[in-house]
Amino acid sequence: xxxxxxxxxxxxxxxxxxxxxxxxxxxxxxxxxxxxxxxxxxxxxxxxxxxxxxxxxxxxxxxxxxxxxxxxxxxxxxxxxxxxxxxxxxxxxxxxxxxxxxxxxxxxxxxxxxxxxxxxxxxxxxxxxxxxxxxxxxxxxxxxxxxxxxxxxxxxxxxxxxxxxxxxxxxxxxxxxxxxxxxxxxxxxxxxxxxxxxxxxxxxxxxxxxxxxxxxxxxxxxxxxxxxxxxxxxxxxxxxxxxxxxxxxxxxxxxxxxxxxxxxxxxxxxxxxxxxxxxxx
Length: 281
Description:
Elements: H1 10-18, H2 24-38, E1 45-48, H3 50-65, E2 77-81, H4 110-117, E3 121-126, H5 163-170, E4 176-181, H6 187-193, E5 196-197, E6 219-224, H7 227-237, H8 271-275
Parallel strand pairs: 2-3, 2-4
Antiparallel strand pairs: 1-3, 4-6, 5-6
């Protein structure tokens, strides 16, 4: 399989899977190999979940052959920031005391469970700034994996604290990843790595199974190759969860076919934001 396929969008990979031009197992193998081969160079990976990925991919292939299509994420590989638990694998929170399997939680985080139900294939737990920056950090290497590096120029930082998800998507190590944001930790890596990040409204996505940094600010959301991909992932992970006290109990339905035309929308803005604070451009 060509490495060019690694830079395809979720939508494009889904079309190939539905047309039986590629299998979920072939996709999983491609991305697992790239994670193991290239992930360390970008400081992007903590744990490659090869056994789980191949088992989930094989199940997806069986279901697709039988005509049981779970939706747009069925058979699509992905990675999660390592503050989310995945049963049977270490959850390090990017902190050295938890390195090497010192902490392994006995259930999937709600987001991981929902992606599994959507047929997505978990390939890796991705690097992050230690404790999501909760102890403060003034330099990019505040993680036992070293500094996350943007694939556009490895001499530069990939951003924090979701450094691994940003770099992994940009480098074609996974088609999409799940990050978390308390104050810029999805949007910063997305900007530094030239990919698309979506920071959901507080309470829209369950944080059960995720390390808490600030209960009143933490959000979990997708980092993808496009806004369309982010919409598809958010649709799968959003929704109420009684295990998260901050859950608003609402879902998200990605239905662009029913969107209003741009010319029918009125945009409001505060003049002061443009007259006093904006850059000339």
